[in-house]
Design brief:
- It is a single chain.
- It is elongated and about 130 Å long.
- It has helices at about 1-50, 145-150, and strands at about 80-90, 110-125, 135-140, 165-175, 180-185.
- The protein is an alpha+beta fold.
- A hairpin with a 5-residue loop joins β4 (about 165-175) and β5 (about 180-185).
- The longest helix has about 45 residues, at about 1-50.
- The protein has 2 helices and 5 strands.
């Protein structure tokens, strides 16, 4: 048994001695390997850096702050311009004399195209939230319905002078409570 044990110990010592030689070589090569890895990491970091979008010769412009509204110049100052056209073709199967539909307010001509109403609306509304308390509105009307909507000439003695001005009024929002709206001018109303 002793001979086997001694042989085993001799064999083990020679393997250990051979392993230590390899270990000494690996430890000696380790600094060179670390230097090589460090240079590769530096190269990869340099490649990963983003390139600047703005050339260095141009001054950088700061982006707008988040949530900041960009002001767009408004030449009309919030004024809106609207159009409306209402036309029709009317035919009366009773064939009235002179193509005149009697006792009719809007469709007065038979067998004819007619312009019932054309409207041009110009409005600049108040906006008290942004400090604009004044506003105005102008409605101009043309066509058959204009004469009908003007009402009785007894109510308006010289209606033909301003017949096409359907509405023209101003608005003021007074700083009372949540805002008291005061309108002044010429209005179209359901009461006449």
């Amino acid at each position: 048994m002793k001979t086997v044990t001694v042989a085993f110990l001799l064999l083990s010592n020679s393997v250990l001695a051979q392993g230590q030689g390899d270990l000494k070589t690996e430890v000696a090569e380790l600094p060179a390997l670390v230097q090589k890895l460090q240079s590769r990491v530096e190269l990869l970091e340099a490649l990963a850096q983003p390139t600047p979008a703005i050339p260095a010769a141009l001054p950088a412009v700061a982006p707008p702050a988040p949530g900041a509204a960009t002001a767009t110049p408004d030449p009309l100052g919030g004024t809106t311009l609207s159009f409306m056209i209402d036309n029709y073709y009317g035919y009366n199967f009773n064939a009235p004399i002179g193509r005149a539909n009697l006792l009719r307010a809007y469709d007065v001509s038979s067998n004819a195209f007619s312009l019932s109403q054309a409207v041009v609306l110009l409005e600049n509304a108040p906006d008290p939230v942004h400090g604009k308390r004044w506003g105005a509105r102008l409605d101009l009307q043309f066509g058959q319905a204009t004469a009908t909507l003007r009402g009785n000439s007894a109510n308006e003695p010289r209606a033909s002078i301003y017949r096409n001005v359907f509405q023209a009024y101003g608005t003021y929002v007074a700083p009372i409570g949540t805002g008291l709206t005061v309108d002044f001018g010429k209005f179209a109303s359901s009461l006449g």
